[in-house]
Structure formats: structure tokens, C-alpha cells
Design brief:
heterodimer, A: alpha/beta, six-stranded mixed β-sheet, four-stranded antiparallel β-sheet, 14 strands, 37% helix, B: alpha/beta, five-stranded mixed β-sheet, elongated
Chain lengths: 310, 379
């Protein structure tokens, strides 16, 4: 089921066209990444999709509601977490959740239940009566996510949410996004300049460049499109009893072997890949993966943006 | 070595100056305020002062009550009418009528020519002119007295023989009927200004802070309308204003020893209207994405001229005529006037009803302007 359906969106700011005929759709429960260099139009797109701004042309349907005709309905189904959107620092975590809950016409009982659930989920229960201003950046960001979830939205925008956070909190937030998508079937839109995040997190992503979609697909599809080498990767679990034999076989096929903690990763040219795999198999090695050697998402992103003169 | 260090320092200083000007030229709001604030303040200051001696330059509106039945009463009335120092706005037959005109603010004072004025002059007895002034308007009574003194001196010199003139005096009376030191007279105006200052930060400052923290964006992502926001901000500021007013009134009463003659409820109503108007201005200013810094400058640009234009340093009666008429568009002129009447003259709702209606009208205009300006501009 399509949760977001965007068709031919155009947005202008005086003589600057921020979005130029942007079209895509996002399915329910999907984690969708929107990537792009600064000024590509990501923020404008998110503002339109969250009902904060109307497009000049085109259609944006969010959970069946047109952002132009029914912006009030959009607010009921979206939650936005952004590095630039904070909570009230002179309210406690509990008070913040109560305040923001009451902005959504939710009953007091429901707010209470949801508040307890969210404080528990984000491990803030112990600190619920402390002023948000006294929280660490990580705790505050977690509270900000909790506030965005108070009205149980179907769609969550995570806009640069891990910026400036310690690795533990960043991991917790990524896990939260995954949990919301997998367990609660919520649609998550993720933007980040840390490109390993969408690579490990997103089901699909769009690369926005100069107000246009330069590429769209799964992270793997995007990486494949920008593949410039003809290497393949073969993986064998480690340790192996006949490591010496493995080294000799690999050497014969002019391949490189990398010893990792749990596996041997062999990088081999495309023309030798098939024969090397056969040889390894015949020698009794347990091959767990044979794949083309792909660039990382970061490399793919650089390649795509370079093509467009970024 | 010394020259080298000096040269390096000069380069750094030059770069800082260059950076400051470059930043300013690109920050349009700050650039506007940097130029507009001094110009606005200069105009506000300049326009509220008269050119030359204010005793000569400003014609104060007065009422004349001639109770004398002889020729000198008529003659002195004519002197008043011909004078450039005062403007005889009304001739009243009784002192009570003149008092009423002063109390309702139609005139700054009244000149009462008593019975037997001519008789006393003819008989070389002491004759006097009674000058009544509104002492709840600070500085006005001494100005009026000075003006009348000049007219009396002129009258005595031209119309009365030297022997008679020494018996012509001026008596003064004020309408509040109590001691009114300068500070006490200015208290309602200071009270008004203190409320305006504090209320301005309740909206413009608060909204700028919400904007910079991103909570304003979050508010608009939630299901809140413009009017919910406006009313919420207004109501909280009004409650704060009532609390502030209680504190200020306690200071006025127990520290400044100024007795409040009129109704406290009316003072709270006026304070509420001051708050609502100021919040309205704050909402209009907040439409633009102003930074907290710009709000501080706007606050300054807005408040300092008000100190002059609402008559705190110099009563509006002493403004040049054009300025006096122009400032009547400022709602605070009316709210401060209402505070003065209630605090010092004990006037009731009927006397200040126009003041309240005008303040309601300007508040309505400001909120409509804010609502229209905020439409479609949420962040």
C-alpha cells in the first residue's frame, strides 16, 4: 500500500526552483532514504510531505490525503524528528510529552498510556521528572523522537537525527527506526549525510540533486549502477584447517585474500571468478557468498553527484 | 619587530571591521534596524519637543470662566483670546463646567476671573486670577501658570495704572485636590510603559525563541491553528500582566506613596488592553523570521520612541500641535490617559470608555493584520 505518493512536485522560492518535477512513492512500513548534498531540496521536500508547506505544482498524497487540500489530516499521520526541532527545555520529559500530546486532540488517558510507553521504550522513565534542558544531547534527541511519536503517527521523518550524537545513542535511534518499520509497520523517511546509515537501514532511497531525483532504488541497486570495476567477492568462513591450500589456490587465480576475524574475503577479477569458485568448491571450501564487488553507498553517491557536476 | 606586530594587528583589526560591515550588509533585518532605529528615535525625540521656548511655542487649550461683571473681566478675557500662549477653547459660565472640561481632557486648564475682579482693580484692592490646572498631567500646571503670568503681566502693564497693578495676583488650584509631586504625577505613564515593555517580550521574544529552538515548527506540525497560538500566547501574557500589575501597584502605593483613587478593576482592564495591543504588535513583528538579536533591537526601536511619544518625559499637551494630533493614533496614548484618569482623578468607566474602545479597535486591527500575515507563513 502506498503511504506517500508524489507526482510532479514543483516548489519555487521567488526565482529559485527548489523542487523540479519530483515524483516517487513510498510504501507502508518502508524505510525510505532521501539523500542529497546541501541545497538539493531535501528540506523543502520534507516540509511539503509533512504538511508544513504546499507545493506550487504537482500532487503529494500522504496516507490518502492531498497536502494541498487537507493539510490538517497530514498533521495527524506524520511525526517529524529533526536536528533543528527541539522540545521545551523548561518542561520535564513527562510534561513535554503531555503538552505535545494535548496538541493532537488525544484524550488524557491515551496521553498517559502513551507517555509511559514511550518513556519506557526510550529508557527515560528514570529521568522523566527532570527538565529537558538538563538532559544530554542524546537524551534530548530521544525525548524529541518520543514527542514525535506521542500521537502514534503512521509516517515518521527522521531528518539528520543522529547528527552530533555519540555512537551508542545513534545506534539506539537507528534501531528505533528499524523497530518502528518492522514491528509497528510505520513508514520511516530517513535523511542523513552519514551514508552508511541509509545503506544499512533503508529499503529504498532517492538521491536528490538540484531539485530533481537523480536516482532511486534499493541501496544495492544504486551501488550496482555506479559499479566501475569488474571484481567479484568470494567469502569463506574462518578459521579453516587448510589455510595454506586456500592461499595457494587464490594465488593461482591472481586474486587477493583478506583475512577478517570471521571470514576470508577474496577479491578476484570477473574473468577468473567462476573458475576460482569452482576450484574452491572442489577443494572442499564452504563458500558463503559470491557477489560482484560493489562500491559503498558513499562512493556511489559521490559518483552520482559528480556526474551532475556537484 | 614592533612595526611588524603593529602591522599584523592593523591587518586583523581591518579584517574584523570588513567582516562586520560585510555581515551587516547581508543581514537585511539588522541593516534595516541599524539605520531605522536612530532615525526613528531622532524623529520621535525631535517631534515631541517644540522649537524654541515651549512656554511661547505651544498653545495650551484652556477654558475661561468670567464671573466678573465689570469691564476688566471682559478685557482680560480678550487678552487671553488674543494671546498666542493659550488657546481659549471654551467659555464656561460656572467653575464646575470648567472643572468638567479639564477632567474630561478637553482643556489643559482653566482661567477663572472671579466676581469683583474689576471692582477690586478700581478700588486698589487685591485682585486675582484663578488658574486651575490638571495636576495629574505632570509639568502642565507650572507651564500653564507661566503662560498666564505672562498674559497677566502684559495686561497689567497696558491696562492698569502702576498703583493698581501691584495688587493683581495669580492664585493656583489643581483639580485632583491633593499633593502631586512630579513622580506621583508620572506614575500612571511609567506603569503603562513598564507593562508595554514586559508584554513585548511575551510574544516577539518568545516566538523568536520558539523559532530558534524549532518548537514553533513542531507546533505547526501538530494540530494547532494560528488562532489557537495567538489566543494561547495572549492569554498567558494577559495573566502575567495582571500579576505584574499587582506587583507594580503595590510598589506605587507603598513605595511611591501614590494613592489610587479610582477602581482597581478598571486599572486591570486597561492593563489587559495594553497587553493585548503589545502582543498584537509582537505577533505582527514575529511573522518575519526574526532572530532573537533582531527582536532585542526591535524592542529598543519600539520602546524608546514610546517613552517620548506617550508623554512620559513631557506631557502630550506640550507637544507641537501636529505631533499632538499624530500621537493620538498610538493606542498607548489612550491607555496611559485612562490609567492617569483612574489613578489620579478617580474617573469611572463612562469617562474612559472612548479610551478603552479605541484600544480594543487597534488590538482588533493588529490581530487581523497578524492573522493575515501569518497565513501560509508558518516557519
Amino acid at each position: 500500500m502506498k503511504m506517500i505518493d508524489v507526482e510532479g512536485i514543483v516548489k519555487r522560492f521567488k526565482d529559485i526552483v527548489a523542487l523540479k518535477n519530483v515524483s516517487f512513492s513510498i510504501n507502508e512500513g518502508e524505510i525510505f532514504g532521501i539523500l542529497g548534498p546541501n541545497g538539493a531540496g531535501k528540506t523543502t521536500l520534507i516540509r511539503i510531505l509533512s504538511g508544513l508547506m504546499k507545493p506550487d505544482e504537482g500532487k503529494a498524497i500522504i496516507d490518502g490525503n492531498d497536502v494541498r487540500k487537507n493539510p490538517g489530516k497530514i498533521q495527524e499521520v506524520v511525526g517529524v524528528v529533526s536536528e533543528g526541532i527541539d522540545v521545551y527545555e523548561y518542561l520535564t520529559a513527562r510534561e513535554n510529552l503531555f503538552f505535545w500530546g494535548s496538541m493532537f486532540n488525544i484524550s488524557k488517558t491515551q496521553i498517559e498510556e502513551k507517555t509511559d510507553e514511550l518513556l519506557e521504550f526510550f529508557s527515560l522513565k528514570e529521568h522523566q521528572n527532570r527538565l529537558a534542558g538538563k538532559y544530554s544531547t542524546g537524551m534530548r534527541r530521544k525525548l524529541s523522537i518520543a514527542v514525535s511519536l506521542i500521537h502514534d503517527p503512521k509516517i515518521l521523518f527522521f531528518d539528520e537525527v543522529t547528527l552530533g550524537l555519540d555512537p551508542h545513542t545513534a545506534i539506539k535511534i537507528r534501531e528505533t527506526a528499524k523497530f518502528l518499520s518492522e514491528k509497528e509497520n510505520k513508514t520511516v523517511i530517513w535523511t542523513s549525510h552519514y551514508l552508511f546509515e541509509p545503506e544499512i537501514l533503508c529499503d529504498r532511497l532517492a538521491i536528490l540533486l538540484d531539485g530533481k531525483i537523480a536516482d532511486i532504488g534499493t541501496p544495492k541497486e544504486i551501488r550496482e549502477k555506479t559499479r566501475k570495476n569488474d571484481f567479484w567477492i568470494i567469502e569463506i568462513p574462518r578459521p579453516s584447517n587448510n589455510e595454506k591450500e586456500l592461499e595457494e589456490i587464490v594465488k593461482d587465480f591472481d586474486a587477493i585474500i583478506v583475512l577478517e576475524s570471521t571470514k576470508y574475503t577474496i577479491k578476484v577479477s570477473e574473468k577468473n571468478a567462476n573458475n576460482l569458485a569452482k576450484e574452491l568448491f572442489n577443494s572442499g571450501f564452504n563458500i558463503v557468498r559470491i557477489d560482484p564487488f560493489l562500491p559503498t553507498l558513499e562512493e556511489a553517491f559521490i559518483s552520482i553527484t559528480a556526474k551532475h557536476g556537484e | 619587530m614592533g612595526n611588524k606586530n603593529l602591522k599584523r594587528s592593523l591587518i586583523k583589526i581591518g579584517k574584523i571591521v570588513q567582516k562586520e560591515f560585510l555581515s551587516l550588509s547581508r543581514d537585511k533585518t539588522s541593516l534595516f534596524f541599524t539605520i531605522a532605529v536612530p532615525v526613528f528615535i531622532l524623529l520621535a525625540f525631535g517631534l515631541s519637543y517644540t522649537e524654541g521656548d515651549p512656554i511661547l511655542a505651544v498653545e495650551l487649550d484652556i477654558a475661561v470662566t468670567d464671573q466678573d461683571e465689570g469691564p476688566f473681566g471682559d478685557l482680560f478675557t480678550q487678552y487671553l483670546k488674543d494671546s498666542d500662549l493659550v488657546n481659549v477653547k471654551a467659555n464656561t459660565s460656572t467653575v464646575t463646567e470648567a472643572d468638567d472640561l479639564i477632567r474630561e481632557g478637553s482643556v489643559a486648564g482653566a482661567v477663572i476671573i472671579p466676581q469683583n475682579f474689576s471692582y477690586s482693580i478700581f478700588n486698589n484692592a487685591t485682585a486675582f486670577i484663578l488658574v486651575k490646572a490638571d495636576d495629574s498631567k505632570h509639568i502642565v500646571p507650572p507651564y500653564l501658570e507661566s503662560k498666564i503670568s505672562r498674559i497677566v503681566a502684559d495686561f497689567a502693564e497696558n491696562e492698569i495704572t502702576s498703583g493698581q497693578a501691584s495688587f493683581l495676583t495669580i492664585r493656583e488650584e489643581t483639580i485632583s485636590g491633593r499633593d502631586m509631586p512630579l513622580r506621583a504625577a508620572a506614575v500612571p505613564l511609567i506603569l503603562g510603559l513598564a507593562l508595554i515593555f514586559s508584554c513585548f517580550d511575551d510574544t516577539a521574544g518568545a516566538i523568536a525563541r520558539e523559532r530558534s529552538k524549532g518548537t514553533l515548527t513542531r507546533l505547526f506540525i501538530s494540530k494547532i491553528s494560528r488562532w489557537d497560538l495567538f489566543i494561547g500566547k495572549t492569554l498567558s501574557s494577559v495573566i502575567l500582566t495582571i500579576f505584574r500589575t499587582i506587583i507594580l501597584l503595590l510598589i506605587v502605593k507603598f513605595y511611591f506613596n501614590v494613592k489610587i483613587i479610582g477602581s482597581l478593576i478598571l486599572i486591570f482592564i486597561v492593563a489587559t488592553l495594553i497587553a493585548i495591543n503589545t502582543i498584537g504588535i509582537g505577533l505582527v513583528i514575529s511573522v518575519r523570521q526574526v532572530s532573537e538579536r533582531a527582536v532585542v533591537i526591535a524592542n529598543f526601536a519600539f520602546m524608546v520612541p514610546l517613552i517620548f511619544l506617550t508623554g512620559i518625559l513631557q506631557p502630550i499637551d506640550l507637544f507641537p500641535e501636529t505631533t499632538r494630533e499624530a500621537v493620538k493614533f498610538i493606542p498607548y496614548v489612550w491607555t496611559n490617559d485612562a490609567l492617569r484618569r483612574v489613578v489620579h482623578l478617580g474617573q469611572g468607566l463612562s469617562s474612559i470608555s472612548f479610551n478603552l474602545l479605541y484600544a480594543c479597535f487597534t488590538a482588533f486591527l493588529l490581530y487581523i493584520t497578524a492573522a493575515l500575515a501569518w497565513k501560509g507563513r508558518i516557519d
